[in-house]
Design goal:
CATH class: Alpha Beta
Radius of gyration: 14 Å
Order of helices and strands: HEHEEEHEHEH
Structural class: alpha/beta
Strand order of the largest sheet: 3-2-1-4-5-6
Distance between the termini: 24 Å
Oligomer: single chain
Number of domains: 1
Length: 145
């Protein structure tokens, strides 16, 4: 969540989405890991030709306030990218995808900052969700050596 990290991830995430051809209107995922990624991409998109909105999927709806599972400017009919900081098992992304589809959204795919290569990508792809990762845990470890 450093300023430098948000700038870098926002720009790289936006570029990856543009290359994907998914044509999403919004990005978001399960709080808390997805939040800074979604917000960074939304901010970067605001500096570009096409804005992408960010939303948050709560783990449970609050009993007060809006009492919604999805908070932010998500709209039914949106084509969305589920975002993650890290994909391990894929469970968080699947949970967010279920919330989005249950609320009338269309999941175009999953964008992760890091894929830990522990089965999450396969689990998501088996459910029909294409996956893009900005990097892998193995690539990070290799660069640290």
């Amino acid at each position: 969540m450093s300023p430098e990290g948000l700038v870098l991830i926002g720009q790289l995430g936006l570029e990856a989405l543009e290359r994907s051809g998914w044509n999403v209107q919004s990005v978001g995922g399960l709080t808390l890991g997805a939040d800074p990624v979604a917000y960074a991409i939304a901010y970067a998109s605001g500096l570009s030709a096409r804005s992408i909105r960010a939303f948050t999927v709560r783990k449970e709806p609050k009993s007060h306030g809006t009492a919604q599972l999805i908070e932010g400017p998500f709209a039914p009919g949106d084509h969305v990218a589920i975002v993650e900081d890290v994909i391990t098992t894929g469970a968080s992304a699947l949970r967010a995808a279920n919330a989005v589809t249950s609320n009338g959204g269309v999941v175009a795919g999953v964008l992760a900052v890091v894929d830990r290569s522990e089965g999450g990508r396969k689990a998501l792809q088996e459910r029909g969700f294409p996956v893009i990762a900005l990097t892998t845990a193995a690539d990070i470890i290799a660069r640290m050596s």
